[in-house]
Please model this.
Amino acid sequence: SLRSGRSGSVGLLVLDVTNPFFTEVARGVEDEAAGAGLAVVLLNSAEAQDRQRRNVRLLAEQRAAGAVVMPVDDDLSDLLWLSHQGTSWVALDRGDVAEGVGCSVSVDNHAGGLAAGRHLIGLGHERVTFLTGPFAIEQVRRRHQGLLDAFTESGMDPGAHVRVVEQPLLNPQQGERAVDAVLAGGPRQRPQAVFCANDQLALGLMKGLGRRGLRVPDDISVVGYDNVDLADLVHPGLTTVAQPKYDLGRAAMRLLRSELDDPGHRHERVLFTPELVVRGSTAAYR
Ligand code: RIB
Model:
């Protein structure tokens, strides 16, 4: 039963509604909520802290029963504020920082970065660029650490083999714009492969590389992260680390339901395992 005075709706607060990763998460959240007779209200932070803050205030004002939230960064103060208002929440992709503070559902991001790194090293790539959004978000840092650890376990100093290009946002426009920074230093220092923190960046980067006359994977390999539908629709197909997006949404909503049914419910952390999907955007270094 819902806590008294609360509406029959739950919020789904996403980091960027234009990212198709969230469409599939939303489908899982919605299916699970429908089973409990709860309506899902979608709110978008657009990767901006002030918008996230406005959205959590709206949720509290509307007396939402609870919320599934992917915070814009590792700062959970907006979620703690929600708790004080008596609104339950489950965090997505914040397993480390939400530990002991609230329920979370995430995917093993370190394992994903490690799998991508091993794949590239196995293909003979020794100069790899990590193209990423802000390091202030947990999943990005963990993916990067996984990549570094792949070099270390192969007996290579990651500092000498991995370069980072950090962008302010995780969208395709930023990926395309990053092409200059990725290629900086000329052909001799150019990376042999680029591992992107999500598919959005990777798809934009592939477009940018094409405009520079570079061929993927002949001149440069590209790996993404998420396995959105588009990864299989572009040519060449994008090699990427698949996340169980639908299951993430379902699990988050299931946890939220336990919170709503039993406010004394102990905080749980659910962790899924990602899986590398190899397509045409990666090839052996020649
Ligand atoms: O929201 C940014 C990224 O975090 C998504 O593309 C997905 O990778 C998620 O885990």
